[in-house]
Predict the 3D structure of the following.
Amino acid sequence: MARRDYGQYCGLARALEIVGERWALLIVRDLLVGPKRYTDLHNGLPRVPTNVLATRLKELEQAGVVTRRVLPRPASGVVYELTERGRDLEDAVIALGRWGARELAEPRPGEIATPSSVIMAMRSTFRPGRAHGLTVDYQLNSGGIALQIRIDHGRLTVTEGTLPRADLVIEAGAGLRPLISGEIEPAEAVRNGSVKMSGGDPALLDRFVEVFRI
Amino acid sequence: MARRDYGQYCGLARALEIVGERWALLIVRDLLVGPKRYTDLHNGLPRVPTNVLATRLKELEQAGVVTRRVLPRPASGVVYELTERGRDLEDAVIALGRWGARELAEPRPGEIATPSSVIMAMRSTFRPGRAHGLTVDYQLNSGGIALQIRIDHGRLTVTEGTLPRADLVIEAGAGLRPLISGEIEPAEAVRNGSVKMSGGDPALLDRFVEVFRI
DNA sequence: CTGGATCCCTCACGATACTG
DNA sequence: CAGTATCGTGAGGGATCCAG
């Protein structure tokens, strides 16, 4: 790691030496959602060459950001997970993700959204100040991805999967971003069909866009 | 920019496409302090090849992060400065810098600290919650760099230069980091000579480490 | 199947020299 | 002062292959 250093006695430079390499922060993003197998990581980041993925994981492991753990039986295999040091990157990942979210217009051709990326997007756009004391469960379906979004006394948890007992089920594809960015009002989005909802009080959708906002 | 994209419809990926290239965020860090000439940037980042610096500036300009401005006379020349979009990166830069600061032990051989890096380090370690309503002026001398650190009713401003009317002048070289990280108590640092102070109430040094902390 | 390792090719980066 | 030009190297991209 002597060749890639920046020669600066500076926290930012140190951070970039560790997680500034290509793909590194996207790997961290996926692991912030939870431990993952090599194959899961590769599925979530299909454009990363396998050698680069293997190299990054070793670098991150040596830097103390990631640990490699061999699963006990019966579920044999290997999972990668963040260390506490790695989880401390969440603030930085969210700050960068929020900044970059303003560049998101239409998806570019061939571009994908993965469960992990959507989960982190929801975490990034969450405004704790607007969710104070709030308790509500949503299920969000977007682009073939089903998310459980639970707010419990103002605390957010986002997981993949369906949530049969959700207070509101939101169905949104490309219409989700304009909704969260405030380009379009919830009522208008429902009217033009870009967002559908079912199973609950329509006012919960207003709550949703109040709480999740770019 | 077609080859370097990540193929992910994700705010973090977008951010990395724009400011994830090598040296880009360090350039932003320096510009967060204020507009700079090409030569100033190069002095602050001596290890960046000039062609890379020129390329990054063009990329950042095209991305709307930086503007290039020709100075009116008499001070002819060119300065680069952040756009508002670029200034919005401050949160992310500070988050990353704070994370990386925990890796800072001793400076590695040949490693330098520049005025801009120290200024951003002070901004990163500033804890607004601990400075509520506080008004005090420090001058900090560290490694040949003189900084004005002004806290006005809890608002921080850090600039290069001396501050003759400072409430306290702090003289610290390598002893500054252990002080801010809490590894060493202020009184102990003064006693062993790693930190000197003059011109004010010694209690102001305790204030200092209270307000600036990793 | 998972969890990588290997090979080749290209281009971005690094170092240095040079110019309006 | 503010860059451009040139050239060598190695990291990243892409496909394939292999061990448990």
About this structure: The radius of gyration of chain A is 19 Å. Chain A is about 40% helix and 20% strand. Chain A touches chain B through 51 residues (CB under 8 Å).
